[in-house]
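haha ok so turns out i had the wrong file open the whole time. this is the CORRECT one, sorry everyone. sequence first:
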Amino acid sequence: MSSSATPARTRADRQDRREAPAAEGGRRRVPWRAVFLGLLGLLFLTPLLWLASTSLKSTSEVSRADLTFLPKDPTTEGYSKILDAPQTPVAQWFLNSMLAATGQTLLVLVVATTAAYALARLSFPGKRLLTGLVLATLFVPPISLLIPNYVIVARFGWLDSLAAVIVPGAAGAFGVFFMRQFFLSLPVELEEAALLDGASRWKVFLAVIVPLSRPALATLALLTFLANWNDFLWPLYVLFSPERLTIQPGLSTLQSAYTTDYATILAGGAIASIPVLILFLVSQRFVIEGIARGGLKG
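then structure:
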């Protein structure tokens, strides 16, 4: 018995000796990988850090030739100007942007998921043609729709209201395409089992498909919120009153034809970036999973 155990022990020792260098090499590679990822992350964070740093500088320091990364004399002068001036109702702009971005996100989720499920799972005449037409609109430059959308919004009487920056973007084809790709990656057997149990198609959609689609829904919600929050051109055309502006066109009013108060503008940019950063940090796990699964099946 000892003679049979000895060869086995010898083979195990040789295997351990072969695996030890590989394991040590793997441990040596991990710090370099961490350093590379850390430097890459710092590269992407540099604009945000510069934004936050410059927003804490005075107007005179920002205008100096020997500009430094860190403020020599930190001050909240820019934030005081932008928050206390009556002609720049930043709090109202911030609230308008939150309402517009949230409202459009909810509309897009409802419209895109229902339309995408119909194109992915239901059978009806002209389905392939309709799918092709919807996807073809992705190739239309958004700027070419500016005047038609303006005419439609004007006829509905939505000019200078938040409805003008909420409703038109709810019919975008990207959300339909993205959710359709995700629905196609889900196993159809789950729906067939629910249908055999007597569930209606609407019940299957709400009780089976929607819960499984949380990663894709979170991704679409983040992308839609970000697009609406950062939109500048369309709100500039349809919003006229200072108290009705959203944050992006509102911040543009801080720049005059002859002078530019960079400290104040960057303070406004820092305020405008807070909701997006928080939203991404909360939903990043779902975003990564949703993007990974959204392109699995065509």
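The chain has 14 helices and no strands.
again sry for the mixup
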